[in-house]
Design goal:
620 residues; mainly alpha; three-stranded antiparallel β-sheet; two-stranded antiparallel sheet; transferase; transmembrane helix
Length: 620
């Protein structure tokens, strides 16, 4: 599925953090003297072999110089301890503005810029997300389910039913929590709700409390993406650009301020991708060291891989938040298999495909078993609840005193025969039956909804989701116009998403025609979070599900920004023009975010301002 890419072409950084290397080299004058006896004359450098390459050379094109295999396996990082020298020359740019820093401080800042830059961007995104987090003072959209489920999990270990007027009591001027212990039927695993409940335990059962942990994960995902982009593109500047763009994406922003599960899915999915990226670098560094003593790359084992195990835990937590994590498991297993096959081939192994498939065969059961273990552990509260009818979690008593047969249908597929399953513990049989009913609910969910949308329209932001809306008149709730509007609209920053369409096309070109593994990794992340929804187009689905692949959409735009800036050996004029274009794109996206910010935060604005932001009738 995923083509092994980037192993023949040089794996070079995007070129932002390196000095320019343009200019013409000064060649020595040719020596026309005959060679000394017994000494061969130096051979001329080989020119382009193909006709097409010779034509391109006539226009100044020069094929990139391939680095050594060890450098291709693990390209150097742009900065950091052990990479940046202890003394760094002063910045000419700062000197031009008359800014002079002490040499030790400047060197320290350069050495730790790989952390300082991402942390600064994450701080910026975090302030945006926590500012006014408790507004609106309401259970918006699906918070009506998850905030209450989270509260119940932390008090009895399973989800419970609530009275019809529970929402009004919780957000009243003198709030109360009408908690009951009778079990409720729910259709999503518990990890996301356990996390939401942490904030409720810390700050109470009110909007700031149930949104707190989601805002924390949203902020941490900005830091993660900045570090991931830095490692992926070997550029601290591009890493900070990626974090900044994620900070100002409207959908990520709104989901970071709402107690829904989908941003938590995104967080664990991104964490799994980061762990796989670390595993890739670690494994290739091991291969590079082995090549020094055992060339050929024919060894069977690539050693202990703790980051791959960490990725499996993160994938398990993704699945234990929403079942869409199962597609993440498959996509990231294929991605890791492609990386291993490419590493074997680059190391010079004769049987690189066979050895790479062996690595993939070992990886799949490891990833699957760890993910299943994490998933089952997430149901601990349900397992520990009573199996006495009416006293435990929903369906906990289903298998008690019931003879068991294997399921007649497994995920909608009729099995050819059934066999006795009474030997399986009652709790596991009850959980399996519960999951069968959950699966039936999900695949048959076709009730029409005002804000449902088709995945074909997601990248174009065809139909956003209104989480909260109020239209007070003059003098009501602080309205100073004839009519006002307050809305929390789940929609991405339009310029970022529309630039993302072009960026995905660019990544497809880089992956398919230039064999750039980085572009393939980005496309894999987008596919894992996006393509599965095309199988459920008749189901009731929403645009906010797309938040799972927003970080990878941002990575695609960041790669496009790097392409605009240009490689380090480009001419000065090319770099100036490209950098200006890239800066204008980033600034336009930030302006677009600020323009729509009142719709992301539920700010009171005149109705005329609200209408001005409804660019399409489908947004209303």
């Amino acid at each position: 599925m995923w083509r092994v890419s980037g192993e023949k072409a040089p794996e070079r950084p995007m070129g932002v953090d390196h000095p320019e290397q343009g200019g013409l080299a000064v060649l020595p004058a040719p020596d026309h003297r005959p060679p000394a006896a017994g000494v061969p004359a130096p051979r001329a450098a080989a020119g382009p072999r193909s006709v097409w390459a010779r034509r391109l050379a006539g226009y100044g094109y020069r094929a990139p110089v391939r680095p050594e295999p060890a450098e291709q396996l693990v390209p150097p990082m742009p900065d950091g301890p052990g990479v940046t020298p202890h003394r760094v020359e002063p910045s000419p740019l700062l000197a031009r503005f008359g800014v002079t820093l002490p040499a030790p401080l400047w060197s320290w800042l350069c050495r730790w810029s790989g952390w300082l830059g991402p942390l600064a961007v994450a701080l910026f995104g975090g302030v945006l997300r926590f500012w006014g987090l408790g507004e609106p003072n309401s259970l918006i959209f699906d918070e009506t389910y998850y905030a209450k489920d989270a509260y119940a999990l932390w008090h009895v270990g399973y989800e419970t039913s609530w009275p019809d007027d529970a929402n009004a009591q919780i957000v009243a001027a003198h709030p109360s929590v009408p908690f009951r212990t009778d079990a409720a039927y729910i259709v999503h695993p518990p990890v996301g709700k356990w996390l939401i409940g942490i904030g409720e335990q810390l700050f109470g059962m009110h909007p700031f409390g149930w949104r707190f942990m989601v805002a924390v994960l949203g902020t941490l995902s900005i830091l993660m993406l900045a570090r991931i982009a830095r490692r992926l593109l070997r550029s601290t500047l591009l890493g900070c650009v990626a974090g900044l763009l994620l900070s100002v994406d409207g959908l990520h922003f709104v989901m970071s301020r709402s107690a829904l599960l989908d941003l938590i899915v995104m967080f664990w999915m991104l964490a799994a991708f980061g762990c796989l990226l670390l595993d890739r670098d670690r494994t290739r560094a091991l291969i590079a060291r082995r090549l020094e003593t055992r060339p050929g790359g024919e060894w069977l084992s690539l050693g202990w891989r703790p980051w791959r195990l960490a990725a499996a835990v993160c994938i398990g937590l993704t699945c234990a938040t929403k079942w869409s994590g199962m597609y993440v498991l498959l996509a990231f297993w294929l991605l890791g298999a492609g990386w291993d096959i490419g590493a074997r081939r680059l190391a010079g192994a004769r049987h690189w495909l066979r050895l790479g498939l062996w690595d993939a065969t070992i990886a799949l059961p490891v990833l699957t078993l760890i993910s299943i273990g994490v998933y089952l552990a997430s149901w601990t509260g349900w397992f520990l609840s009573s199996d006495v009818p009416g006293q435990g979690g929903y369906g906990r008593d289903w298998a008690v005193h019931r003879a068991g047969l294997s399921p007649e249908y497994v995920f909608g597929v009729k099995m050819p025969f059934q066999f006795d399953m009474t030997w399986v513990p009652d709790a596991l049989r009850s959980l399996w039956h519960y999951h069968a009913t959950m699966y039936s609910f999900h695949v048959n969910l076709r009730d029409p909804h005002t804000y449902q949308s088709n995945p074909w329209s997601w990248l174009f932001l065809g139909r956003p989701v209104s989480y909260f809306y109020d239209s007070p008149k003059y003098g009501q709730s602080g309205c100073t116009a004839n009519e006002c509007a307050r809305e929390v609209l789940g929609i991405g920053t339009p310029l970022l998403w529309w630039a993302g369409i072009a960026a995905l096309a660019y990544c497809l070109y880089r992956w398919a025609l230039r064999r750039d593994w980085r572009a393939g990794a980005v496309l894999c992340g987008v596919a894992a979070g996006y393509l599965p929804w095309f199988m459920y187009q008749q189901r009731t689905i929403f645009l906010f599900y797309a938040v799972a692949f927003v970080p990878f959409l941002v990575l695609a735009v960041t790669m496009l920004v790097g392409a605009l800036i240009g490689p380090p050996d480009a001419t000065h004029d090319r770099r100036v023009i490209g950098t200006t274009a890239a800066a204008l794109l980033v600034l336009a996206i930030m302006w677009n975010f600020l323009y729509f910010l009142p719709l992301y935060t539920g700010e009171m604005i005149p109705m005329s301002d609200w209408r001005a932001r409804m660019w399409f009738t489908s947004w209303i």
